[in-house]
Structure formats: C-alpha cells, structure tokens
C-alpha cells in the first residue's frame, strides 16, 4: 500500500522544526519513506490525497489515560469526596472485563477523532484495553494497575502480578500494543510492593513502568508520616526511580525531587485539566523540562479531565505555566505542540518510531482542517493549534500507514454500537448513585 499526501502544510516536528508549506508525504506500508515541498514525486499506483492546504502533523501522543473510565465521564462533578463516595464503590461493584472493553472503545473513538495516535494507558483488566487498542488501530502502551485498595481485578498483589504476566504474554511482539506494569502510586502500593515491581522490572527490562507520582497532598503527607521523606525519595529507595519510568501528574515536587528525577532519568507527564478540576495544583513543567526531563501531555481518565484529545489540554498547559511565571513568555505554543508529539513520544520511549514526520519513521499522522474562520489569519501555526484549533478540526487520522479516520468517518470502530454499550453502563451507574445518596442521607 502506497499513499501520497500532497498540497499539505506539513509540520514535521523534527529537530530543526522543518515545515513544508506546500508539502507532500510519501508513505509505503507502515513507514514514511520521503517528504518534502514543491512538486510531489510521481508514484504510479499510489493512493493520492490532496490535502487542500490543511495541516498534516504527527499524530498526538496522549501520555497518560485510563481508557476504561470514559463511562465515568462527568460523574459526581464538584463533589469533594467523590472518589470514596462514588467511584471506588462503583468500581468494586461494576468494573468487569466487559465494562473496561466498552469504556475503552468509547475512548479509542474519541482519541481517533481528536488526532491522537498513541496512548499510554493504565487501568484494570488491561488485556481488554490492549485488545480494543489493537482493533481500533491505535498505538498503545497498556499498563496493568497494581493497588492495595481492593481493586476490581485483583484481591492481592500475587493476583495482580499474575494479571501483568497474562498481559505481557498476550502482547509479546505486537506491532502496536506494548504491555506495561503500572503500580498505582507510592501510597497505594507501599514500599515493599514498589520494591517487588522494581525487581520484576529489572527482570523484564523491555516492559515500561507507569505510575502516578506526587499527585496530591495526601500522598506527600503519607510519605512524610510513614517514611520521613518525600514521595519521590520513597520511590527512589524502592529502586523504582529508574530510567524511562513514566511518572504521571508530578505536582507536589520541590527542587530536590526534580534533581532526583533528573539524575535517575525518569520521564514525566502533565495532566492539567485533571489537576485543575480537582484543585490539586500546577505542575512545575518548565522546571522539569529545564532539568532535562521529557514532559508529555496526558488527558488522565475522562472521569477526571472529561476529554481525551490533547487540543483541550493545550490552553491549560500553556496558561498554567504563564500564570506560574507571571508573564507571557513561559512555555511558548511551539513547545506545547512538541510536548504533545515528539516529546510525548520521548516520554514513552517511542521517539524512534513516532512523534515526528521523518523518513524511516512510522506513518502516524493527523490532518487538521483549516476550513474554520476561527483559525484565521495564521501568523504562527503552533499558536493556532494551541489556542484556536478544536478536536473537531481533525479530519483524518493514520497509524502505521493505516487510515483510522477519513473525512471524520472512523473506519475501525462501530460508532453507534460503541456509544450504545457505554450508555447502558452509565444507566447502571446512575441507579447505584441514587441508592448511595439515599443510603447516606
Ligand atoms: Zn491517572
């Protein structure tokens, strides 16, 4: 299969930030073989796509998500004890492989529609998430969560590790789906289990490790009260602060924590909508990046941040940095787009495969229509993407040379069935919430 995209405003996101204003991209199979500007090459038999001057850019990398949780979207908004009042009881009662499958399919649909081509996920029954991602055609890191709060798919950590092993076996050598192990957070696994994960990880160096780190004052207080040090230091002492560890949130950090994270070459994810909505704080994104730590952008689960595209994260990522710095200058739009693409890929150790449009890389890309008046005039395409574009401006999404969406039509999932399945689960949740409210009143 050969595809030739022509008449495109190609943002490559390569090291030189090369743009081709009247550009073309030549794709053979799953790989970009050439790209440039000016007259496109003549390739007999290629599927030629005239992009009408639209932006063609790398597919976006959502570096932290809980795909199964999209069925919780908007549930119990503004209720401060929502996690303990609704979410954990609902998860214990209703989270099954089938529910995770339905939620993950809804999430996959939304991400493809929003131009996301790679996602790092962590949740329960994660083998199902991997299956959904594979069917949807998304590139994914799927992490089996381990936690001590009676989660729905393991009663103890031995069972949790068995789930990890099952996941690793299911996706060994898969071209798109990478299995991963995901200790939930330091306070919800504890030092002993983190040490066990570190040992397991040393025996399985190709399996990425993901965790929530320094997300809340609750976690910071736990680390101080239980271990007399910061949560980052506890993670280091467990042997888990190792190169390429994917750390989500990274909010409650002091300078010593950031130095420690940099010395151990970990990677970070910022989740601004989720953190902002929970009133948790602002991640020190510039400090992390200045310390040489790659920082990706993550949606978190739809329960926390509501949307899974990255366009809706862009303004908060940028504005939080500007508010923190008290100036217009911090985190320019171009840096935000880098974080959403090549730097996010680096944070997941997938930067040799995806995150930029370069010959030899996988053809993971998205087309952003410039039809909307709201986007014009365009002095700077990165500013346009960060502050004016919406996920609905995305018309086409491709992963590994395969179109997942053309002209807003998702080709790999049944939209009606996906929505119907998710809404059926939401009805069950609503009934249970009414019961909980009655019981507590
Ligand atoms: Zn999370």
Which short descriptors sum up this protein?
441 residues; 17 helices; 22% strand; TIM Barrel; globular; binds zinc ion; 4-stranded parallel sheet; 2 domains; single chain; 9-stranded mixed sheet; alpha/beta; Urease, subunit C, domain 1
Write a short abstract of this structure.
This protein has helices at residues 82-94, 97-113, 126-136, 157-170, 186-189, 191-203, 217-227, 231-237, 255-263, 272-277, 285-290, 302-305, 311-325, 333-340, 342-347, 381-387, 415-440; strands at residues 2-11, 19-28, 31-37, 47-50, 55-58, 60-65, 116-123, 139-146, 177-183, 210-213, 246-249, 267-270, 295-297, 365-368, 394-399, 402-406, 409-410.
How many structural domains? 2
Radius of gyration: 21 Å
- Class computed from helices, strands and strand pairing: alpha/beta
Largest sheet: 9 strands, mixed
- CATH architecture grouping of the largest domain: Alpha-Beta Barrel
Roughly what is the average pLDDT, rounded to an integer? 97
Q: State the helicity in percent bands.
A: 40-55%
CATH topology heading of the largest domain: TIM Barrel
Broad CATH class of the largest domain: Alpha Beta
For CATH, the homologous superfamily of the largest domain is named as Metal-dependent hydrolases
How does this model look, in words?
The chain has 441 residues and is α/β, with parallel strands linked by helices. It folds into two domains: 2-58 and 362-410, Urease, subunit C, domain 1; 60-347, Metal-dependent hydrolases (TIM Barrel, Alpha-Beta Barrel). It has helices spanning 82-94, 97-113, 126-136, 157-170, 186-189, 191-203, 217-227, 231-237, 255-263, 272-277, 285-290, 302-305, 311-325, 333-340, 342-347, 381-387, 415-440; strands spanning 2-11, 19-28, 31-37, 47-50, 55-58, 60-65, 116-123, 139-146, 177-183, 210-213, 246-249, 267-270, 295-297, 365-368, 394-399, 402-406, 409-410. The strands form three sheets. Strands 1, 2, 3, 4, 5, 14, 15, 16 and 17 form a nine-stranded mixed beta sheet that branches. Strands 6-7-8-9 form a four-stranded parallel beta sheet. Strands 10-11-12-13 form a four-stranded parallel beta sheet. A hairpin with a 7-residue loop joins strand 1 and strand 2 (19-28). The termini are far apart. The mean pLDDT is 97. The site of zinc ion (ZN) has 6 residues, from loops. Belongs to the metallo-dependent hydrolases superfamily. ATZ/TRZ family.
